[in-house]
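Message: A physicist's question: would you kindly supply an amino acid chain plus fold tokens?
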Amino acid sequence: MRPSFAANLFFVSLCTSTAFGHMEMAYPYPRDSIFSPYYRQHSPDWDVASPLEGDRSYPCQGKPRGPIQAIFRPGSSIPVRLIGPNNHEGGHCQFAVSYDGVNFVVIKEVLHTCLTDSGSNFNVRLPRSIGNGVVVFAWSWINAQGRREYYMNCADIAITGGKSNGRVTGPRLLVANVPGYPVIEEFYYDWNDDGQSLFDERDIISISRW
């Protein structure tokens, strides 16, 4: 299910500079997103682009589950679109899925050059083994330059056409720069520690609906 972003162009032009002070996932529509036809009519959050801090806690900015925003099949690609003016000279992006909203398995990552060399559009292929049901699809970003931050948007999607007992195995989502987690300092310059060792040390986990 692909969105029509042409229909959203006028709406984007109305957004304030606060709403686009950083970066956010425009599709699949995250919780409380102004891009979602549903949330647009139900008190959208105009600052979804903000990093995790304060009430915007891990995971998913502390936002509860909402209605399904898109439907996909196992093995299909999610056309992820990120938007915003401040890419902080790139950084590390992770795309992950979860059944329970707690345990996230990374299914694609773009390290170092996310939002610079990589651009802001990504095709994220769902594992063929993923099971049917409601899934949380998450985008996270560790910025390369600037105040140490962690960004995360979550979209509620449905998987159909697969197995009821499917599962996903892969690296656990790396969380950083929020209380209780490691800090990855600025790594815009080659001589800075980019946190690669933390990525290398991630646990491999399996998740399923049951």
The longest helix spans residues 9-13. The radius of gyration is 16 Å.
